[in-house]
Design goal:
Chain lengths: ~575, ~400
Amino acid sequence: MPGRGDWATQQLAEFLVQVSSYATEDEALRGAAERAAEALEAEVGVAVQGGRVRASVGFARGAVPEADIVALGCDWQERDVALPGLGAGRAAVAPVDDGWLLVVRLADEPFAPHEVNLLRAMARVLSQTVRMLHVLCEERALRERVERESEERAALVTLLTERQRLLERLGRIQRSISHRAPLQEVLDAVTQGAKDLLGDEVCGLRMIDPDCPDEFFLASYCGITTEELEQARRGPVGQGAGGRAIAENRLVIIDDYGREANAVPVFQAHRMTTAMAAPVHENGRVVGSLVVASYLPGRHYSLLEQEALTSLAQHASLALTDAKTVDAMREAQRAKDMFLAMVSHELKTPLTVIMGALRTLESHGEAVEPELAREMVTAAYARGEELRRLIDRLLRGARAELAGARRAATLRELVMTSLDGFGQLRRLSVDVSGDTTLVVDTVAFADVLGILVENAVAHSAGDAPLWVAARPHGPEVCVAVTNPGSLPEGVDPATLFLPFQRGSGARSSGVGLGLYIAARLAESMGGAIDVTSTSDRVTFLLRVPRDAADPVPPPPAPVVALTG
Amino acid sequence: MCLLSAGLSSDKGEVTRGTDRWMGVGQSGDPDAYAAGAAAARSALRGESPRLLVVFCSGSYDLPALLRGVNDASGDAPLVGCSTAGEIATSGPSDASVVVTAFGGSGFDVVTSAATGVSARLREAGAEVASALRPVDGKPHQVLLLLTDGLAGDQQEIVRGAYGVVGAGVPLVGGCAGDDLAMTATYQLHGREVLRDAIVAAAVSSDAPFGIGVHHGWRTVGEPMLVTSSGGNRVYSLDDRPALDVYLDRLGAPAAARTDPAAFTRFALTHPLGLSRRSQEPQVRFVAEADFAGRSLGCIAEVPQGGLTWFMEGDAESVLDATDRACATALGGLDGPPLGMLAFDCIARRGVLGDPGIRTEIDRIGVVANGAPVAGFYTYGEIARTHGMSGFHNQTLVVLAVG
């Protein structure tokens, strides 16, 4: 066994190894107090620094007599002490930077000089260690600050780079929209942009099917396998992140796709982890959603990524709205061209007769038999009347102020007046029930009923009978005009009331404005026209309030009819 | 050779004599776990109001069944205990048995606690069990009994954690659970729970003093070696050579101990390391296992890097001499004859003494106890903090005399 000097050296070596292994000042102070007490077989070890107890051992937790210990000071080396809670003992102390290291034996066993010297050596080691740790701590703090600043700068650069990429991508999409690129091309650019910018494996643009509003279809996609496409090409509109974005009309993030109750089954089966979707609008109405999704565990969408997807979805909305507008404009232009052609033709036909008659009379007036001349004038006059009615109707369809003055009339009076003259054209069966009185725009009423009968005449055989039935029904009156026949299969009745719609079997020479004008006149009276069709009969039902309030302004015409 | 010894009580004030305190020990070797636990408990319960049952038993028992037997017999009195490497009772040492010690009467107050997941947080767990025991006070004498998993890591850290909570005013005593030298898993018992990687503790306060004696009987041999690399309780190199090579070569270990873990442990039982300490007596470190691939040694507690270490030896005479002195020191802390005695005896001492020797050792303890009941177990490490801060020992006998 070593002698006293060797023992002290040994203890100091162990103390040095132990204390130098600590990473912080607090650990070093606590370890030093503990190891010094262990080495010197003392019950109490205390490290005082800056006028307070930084570490202690030997007291029950919460019972450190700090004031008594600090009051001991360190201007002595070895002495008797009395510690509250522990009693009397012998103590040794050695100075450290701005404090001291104290050990106390509760047994009456003094510290030998070599033990006091060992404690002083330990205190010097502790001072050196604490100084070193202090420097290291400052260096570490400085390094951490530099690293943190460096990371912040790197993060800022990354953020700016990402924003730049986003802006560049959005710019390309905007140019596609402004250059009127085909809609599908623009939508594909949006989905590919989302995939490139966010880096997710799957991206899709789903749209509500206008013909089946409960279902969606994938309008554009990337990163989807053939198998997934087969199962996810269509689906219930509320499914997955995209469905929630549509339902909630906001950005939606699903962090745990595996536990999502209403996930798209094929993606859930393939262990998709996360998904994010933003709503897509058309003229402010939600019509679909732009979705990105990942299979990576722990995928988290940053604010910048959320912003990027929202921006891309807004560009998809812009493209859809713009495309719809362009389609409408193209359709209007097509309709206008067609209208002009038809009007030209319709106007030209009677004009030809009139001009021919006038030219004949001008060139050969004296040679023409008076009887023939009268027939020619009568025909020209009739054609002129036809021309006038045609022009009146065209002008009426174009005017916004359809409604005229209201006045009281009985239903029978109104119906019979409106049908005046049609009895010579067709076998007309008229049935008016109830002698109720209406307060309506009688001119408009007569026009509507006349158009409906004209329509029935035009869409039925020349010898076919027609039926007109009128009766009060609650606060309204209903007038049904029925002709034999049926609507062509697949025809949406609503389209019959669009302008320039001519039935394939129409026998009239109209331009397809009749039902359009009738519908608008009915609306101006606060009423409406419904169409029903069976296998052998078509019925147009006019419903008008018995006492309409002020005339309802007609809705704006969906297309430009006659201007330009 | 006396390493640590002191007569102990936290307060040397008056002892209330004649208060209601009793202690009993029961033992059973019944192979049926429930029956063994119930029989040992019934034998130990010799009075009213049992306050604490301390159970030492072989880990080969169905321990939940054994605890059911004990608790059914005691009416679920507070219980701590552990598995052992052999049990000690008044009647002598035994294996594959259960020994139950009962503390009873109004002269004792007891609170128990347990901490689990100890190996990852030794110091914190030591503080945790001690914190749970803080309410115990009001009687003049206290002791904190700790039973730990000796395979969990540096046991001195557990002692430091407990000491940091209770301070110098409360002595610590106890031992590390064993597993009959299998060195694979030990068990700690708390109430009806069987725990692993745990500490169980009982704070016992009494109207009468406690005495603790600590002696080992080992001596250094040969020249010291410098611990050139260590971490916690693992020694990597001695004198800059792989620690295992130095250990085997310097001690001339048999061939089997160089390759077979079990043979190594048997060899190491009687060849501990010693650490230099102020009291001129080395502190002993039990070498529990070897890493044959990494060529390092695993001890039960810390071997500080930078320190000197020695090989140590002992014989039956020195070990039994230490037994006598530990008992005498423990009794010296009392004001009269003991109510009973608990012995925490290192399994390595059993290796030195052999079966006849351990019988002799227990007989000697019984003589000192003078008819009072004796209980204990063979441990993988001993806890006794009586003065100073170091409270963990190896190859040592710790005796707790209950006054």
